[in-house]
Amino acid sequence: MAAAAAAAAGWIWRWGWGRRCPGRSGLRGPGPGPTILLLFLLLVGPVAADITDGNSEHLKREHSLIKPYHGIGSSSTLLWDFQGSTMLTSQYVRLTPDERSKEGSIWNHLPCFLKDWEMHVHFKVHGAGKKNLHGDGIALWYTRDRLVPGPVFGSKDNFHGLAIFLDTYPNDETTERVFPYISVMVNNGSLSYDHSKDGRWTELAGCTADFRNRDHDTFLAVRYSRGRLTVMTDLEDKNEWKNCIDITGVRLPTGYYFGASAGTGDLSDNHDIISMKLFQLMVEHTPDEESIDWTKIEPSVSFLKSPKDNVDDPTGNFRSGPLTGWRVFLLLLCALLGIIVCAVVGAVVFQKRQERNKRFY
Ligand SMILES: *[C@@H]1O[C@H](CO)[C@@H](O)[C@H](O)[C@H]1NC(C)=O
Ligand SMILES: [Ca+2]
Q1: Is residue 284 scored above 60 in pLDDT?
Q2: For ligand 1, atom 11, which residue shows the shortest CA distance?
Q3: Which residue among 159, 203, 251, 300 has the greatest number of ligand 1 atoms within 8 angstroms of its CB, and so is best to mutate?
Q4: HEC states along the chain?
Q5: What is the pLDDT of residues 66-116, one digit of tens each?
């Protein structure tokens, strides 16, 4: 039993968030076989739903942008609308070229009615600008409105829904933050994004992420499930996800649109999207949860921010993730194994001592 549990724990380490999902093309093979999976499910039970699915059969083509955008039999271009400076090639979608005062976006044509999803974005930000002479970055969206140009990385302000900002330029000169910086914002239309402060007052969480002018592929994953919002990056060409943002208490409706936009100002960059792949996560909901109309949910966040959360942290670490289901499980497992080991060692020592005592008498 202990061995099986240890194997399961190893499985979690290997297949949890520590690794890029197997669903993406060009990645190492599929997940573990059904036996291990069954064992895992038996041991972990409800926690299993939290593990990245990433399975290619759960890829939702109608919400994904995949190369070749023009290919025969591909409907990618029909499923996505383009606006502004956006330019399509066979290899990438360029939201803005490396020129001043451009803005462009792409928007999924269909609203998304999945309650639990994970979006994998393959992107590339590159340009001739030297350090801190480039901008402004990319925004990824899950919002009520689409195709409306505006000042927030090429898209409208006072949006309804979720935004993930890949901000390459520190507009706030007083910041100690290291850029590029990734942050998230949830809005019900009442909040305005303050560009001069890099959105500091409205961000929920963020992290520093060195994604610009990299020679290899750069990826970002956004997962939304059961009120938990997770952002991971894969920027080091190691085929591994690295945690960036992990917050709970986020409420988003279904029926919003996925999109991506980018903008340049006095400074510029090429902002390219190579692919956006949406995966459905297989998560069960209670009958209570199922009974409500998810399209009527107002975007909101219920966790309370303490003022110190807005204090600069040079490392870019905003907060460490909460103790999630499987982390608690692992802790308990380690504790249990520890107790068992102690008990066994104790028993052996005790027995040895008894034997020695017998010999002396
Ligand atoms: C929108 O959000 C603001 C602040 O986050 C809040 O005060 C307001 O009540 C919200 N409005 C609705 C309609 O939920
Ligand atoms: Ca900025």
Answers
A1: yes
A2: 188
A3: 300
A4: CHHHHHHHHHHHHHHCCCCCCCCCCCCCCCCCCHHHHHHHHHHHHHHHHHCCCCCHHHECHHHCECCCCCCCCCCHHHHEEEEECCEECCCCEEEECCCCCCEEEEEECCCECCCCEEEEEEEEEECCCCCCCCCCEEEEEEECCCCCCCCECCECCCCEEEEEEEECCCCCCCCCCCCCEEEEEEEECCCCCCHHHCCHHHCCEEEECCCECCCCCEEEEEEEECCEEEEEEECCCCCCCEEEEEECCEECCCCEEEEEEEECCCCCCEEEEEEEEEEECCCCCCHHHHHCCHHHCCCEECCCCCHHHHCCCCCCCCCCCCCCHHHHHHHHHHHHHHHHHHHHHHHHHHHHHHHHHHHHC
A5: 988 865 555 666 799 999 999 999 899 999 999 999 999 999 999 999 999
**Does residue 188 line the site of ligand 1, with CB under 6 A?**
yes
Measured in Å, residue 355 CA sits from the centre of ligand 2 at 73
pTM, rounded to two decimals? 0.73
Is the pLDDT assigned to residue 206 strictly greater than 80? yes
Ligand nearest to the CA of 192: 1
In this prediction, residue 280 has a pLDDT band, given cuts at 50, 70 and 90, of very high
Domains and CATH numbers, the chain: 59-295 (2.60.120.200)
